[in-house]
Amino acid sequence: MSRAAVSRATVSRIVVWAVFALLYAYPLFEGISNLIALPPYYAANGIGAAVPWWLLIIGVAAPVLLYLAALWIGRGRELFARTLVLAVGLAAANALVLSAVSWASAVQPPLP
Amino acid sequence: MNHPDPGRSAPGAADDDEALRWAGDDLRGGVDPLTRNRVAAPAAASLDDGMDAAPAEPGNLARTAATVGFAVLYLAIVVGWILSVQITGSTATDLFSQVAWQFGEFVAIISGALWYLTVLTLTPQTRTAVRVGWFALGIGVLLPWPILLVLAS
Predict the structure, then answer these.
(1) In a domain? residue B10
(2) A85 and B149 in contact by Cβ < 8 A?
(3) Is residue B26 part of a domain?
(4) Largest Cα–Cα distance in chain A?
(5) pTM of the predicted model over 0.90
(6) pLDDT tens-digit readout, B13-45
């Protein structure tokens, strides 16, 4: 493979990484905003001890871990396979965020 | 080699055979060229005759069964997420957040199909256990909790 072809492949790969990093940023942003906003909301309503920390941590960790896992699984593969794995990770991250939100609603104690 | 020989009036088959043998062949274990390449007895027709593909390997049945079985489960996951997004909603009012939320719901709906097709694409040669492992992991990660929690309550 020529030097130009190698650099073109590298640029394509970096563009895919960057685009997916932006797409993963939204579920990560949601997770962080829940982590920041939910504990004070629970405390203000007198149920501060019932903060579902495990769900908040999953909400923040899932997008980051899935992005890194997708990069690791896609290493050494062609661009299509890398993109496919990143897309699956993105879909899974969004599904996990929605699941975490519904679990948080389900385990929230009744407000006094 | 049937060159006409003016010295012989009617060259016969015996002459042709003779021409392709050397004296002493039999003693040295040689085989004359006329019989060397003949097939002594045609091989019995094998079972593979007429088949384009390689014969099925022993593990293929389990692999096919797992692939089909998980297809049904992943279809259920897609249906589950279609129902789930009906009962989840965003309280955001700005356009960007609404669009991002809708996009998140859309990719959650297709997550099952994407995971299934990706496993199919990336594990064509791997062991059946590896493929089944990836399928099972996807089922665990992508469970449509919003609708399951509603059904359970």
Answers:
(1) no
(2) no
(3) no
(4) 69
(5) no
(6) 556 555 556 566 566 655 555 555 555 555 555
Residue B96 lies in a domain: yes
Mean pLDDT of the region A42-57: 91
Closest CA to B103 of A34, A57, A97, A80: A97
Rounded to an integer, what distance in angstroms lies between the CA atom of residue B62 and that of residue B152? 33
Q: Return residues 74-93 of A near B (CB < 8 Å).
A: 77, 81, 84-85, 87-88, 90-92
User: Which of 7-66 (A) contact B at CB < 8 A?
Assistant: 26-27, 30
Q: Which range of residues forms the domain containing residue A40?
A: 13-107
CB within 8 Å: A84 and B145: no
Half-sphere exposure of B87 (CA within 13 A, CB side): 18
Query: Domains in chain A: how many in total?
Result: 1
Domain range for residue B105?
60-152
Interface test with B, best of A98, A101, A105, A107 (most B CBs within 10 A): A98
- ipTM, interface predicted TM-score of the complex: 0.88
- Decide if A62 is inside a domain: yes
Give residue-wise pLDDT tens across range A56-91. 999 999 999 999 999 999 998 999 999 999 999 999
Spatial separation of the C-alpha atoms in residues B4 and B9, rounded to whole Å: 9
